[in-house]
Amino acid sequence: MLSLRAVNQFYGSQHTLWNVDLDLPPGTCMGVVGLPGMGKTTLINCITGQLPVESGTIIWHEAGAPPQNLLDAQRRPLNIGYVAQERRIFSQLTVEENLHIAQRAQGNVDGAALERVYDLFPQLWGQRQTRATSLMEEAQYELALANALVNGPRLLILDEPTLGAGHTYARKLGHLLVRLNRELGMTVLLAEQHLSFIRRVAERFCVLYRGRNVAQGHVNDLDEQLIAHWLTREAKG
User: 166 pLDDT band (50/70/90 cuts)?
Assistant: First the structure.
């Protein structure tokens, strides 16, 4: 579904991603892990088109459609949902207005899609006429997720979903991602620091260290030796 080959990215003269390869098969949940500053958000931003790529390819291949290079400036609208760290909701609009805008952005006016989203987030149904700025922090993140899901994406991309979240909400979010991935068949890619969360929700992982993909595989292979080498402050490249 998603394939990266030899992706390189620069901030000015700083080389931030080095020949990153990554394969995300359909129906898989993959966690991109690494210490802060190792390139996780940069990689997500390259995939979602928020940052330019110096070289390499990022290919999206949805079932029933030809492969598409995500680096093509003329690319068609894609069936991808994305939640950034900063959420990007319309704070002065109501929950329902936010969802309607998210739908219209994709040319969608499906009322059944709204019902499905409210089924996933029943708390938002009760607050649908509430301005987003008045929601609690966790409800604001749920609204950002709902905006990403309202058009029924085949791929959901999340950047640091547990950032600032308490233990209880992180568990709730984990249950939701498991449901989306394993029950509803949605492919999920998330950048995340917390290994316990990755182990709970993901099937596969890749480790970024100083912008390089230094390890990847099944989440069961994310063992203590690998963690000690690449995911501690004392890690040595």
Answer: confident
What one-letter code names the amino acid at 72?
D
Work out how many domains the chain is built from and give that number: 1
Residue 119 included in any domain: no
Residue 1, domain CATH: 3.40.50.300
Place of tokens 């059944």: 112
Cβ–Cβ under 8 Å, residues 118 and 142: no
Residues near 107 by beta carbon (within 8 Å), at least 6 away in sequence: none
Compute the distance between CA of residue 176 and CA of residue 51 in angstroms, rounded to an integer: 29
pTM of model > 0.90: yes
210 within some domain = yes
* Tokens describing residue 207: 């480790």
Q: How many CB atoms lie within 10 A of CB 202?
A: 26
